[in-house]
Amino acid sequence: MRYTISGKHIDVGEALTSHVKEELGEVLEKYSQRPTDATITFSRDAHQFLCDSVVHLSTGLTVQAKGTANEIYAAFDACRERMDKQLRRYKRRLKDHHKDRSGPVEFGEAGMYVLAADEDEWESQESGLQPIIIAEMESRVPTLSVGDAVMQMELAGAPLLVFRNEKHGGVNVVHRRDDGNVGWIDPRSSK
C-alpha cells in the first residue's frame, strides 16, 4: 500500500510516520484486504491538531475520517478510531461487495462547475440571472447500487453522493437529511 503522510505547516517526523503506517495498516488489514493508497494530512487549528485521512480501496470505494485533539498523536488516534468504527460497521457489506461484482466499481466522467456566490453579480449581467462560472473541472461518477451508494457516502463522510444506478443506468443522488435519515432521489421513479 502507498502512504502519503504530510503536514500543513507542520513537520511530520519519522516517528509519527512509522506510527501512522503501523496503526493504520492494522485497521485496514482487519477489514479490507486490498487498500491501494492512503493520504494522511496533519494540520493545526489554533491549539488543536487536525488529522484528515482518505483511503482508496481496490474495489473503488473511498473511506475518509477526521480527528482532532490537543496533541498530534491523539489527533491521529481519534481519526484511526473513527475509521475503525466506520469499517467495522460496514465489514460484512465490504466483504460481500466484491462477491457481487466481477470487477471494481466503474466510474464515468462528468463536468463539475463552481459558480460565483454573489447573486448581485448575476443580475448585473445582460442575460439576466445567469450564474458566473468561476471554475470548470472533471468529476467521476461511480456506477453503484443504492445500498452501495449509501455505504460509500457514509464511508467518505460526504453530505451527498451523485451516482449512476447500476439497475437502470440513470443518475441518482443519495443525501443526508436534516432529520438524520438518508434521502434517495431517483428521477426515473417519479413518473
TrEMBL record:
Keywords: Cytoplasm, Translation regulation
Subunit structure: Interacts with 100S ribosomes.
Main location: cytoplasm
Descriptive protein name: Ribosome hibernation promoting factor
Family (UniProt): Belongs to the HPF/YfiA ribosome-associated protein family. Long HPF subfamily.
A Gene Ontology molecular function term of the record: ribosomal small subunit binding
Pfam families: Ribosom_S30AE_C, Ribosomal_S30AE
Single biological process term from Gene Ontology: negative regulation of translational elongation
Gene Ontology CC terms, in alphabetical order: cytosolic small ribosomal subunit
Database matches in PANTHER family: 30S RIBOSOMAL PROTEIN
Entry's localization field: Cytoplasm
Matches recorded under InterPro entries: HPF/YfiA_ribosome-assoc (IPR050574), HPF_long/plastid (IPR034694), RHF-like (IPR036567), RHF/RaiA (IPR003489), Ribosom_S30AE_C (IPR032528), Ribosom_S30AE_C_sf (IPR038416)
Organism listed in the record: Paracoccus tegillarcae
Record flagged with keyword Cytoplasm: yes
Gene: raiA
Gene3D superfamilies to which the protein is assigned, alphabetical: Ribosome hibernation promotion factor-like, Sigma 54 modulation/S30EA ribosomal protein, C-terminal domain
Function, in words: Required for dimerization of active 70S ribosomes into 100S ribosomes in stationary phase; 100S ribosomes are translationally inactive and sometimes present during exponential growth.
Annotated Sigma 54 modulation/S30EA ribosomal protein C-terminal domain residues: 130-183
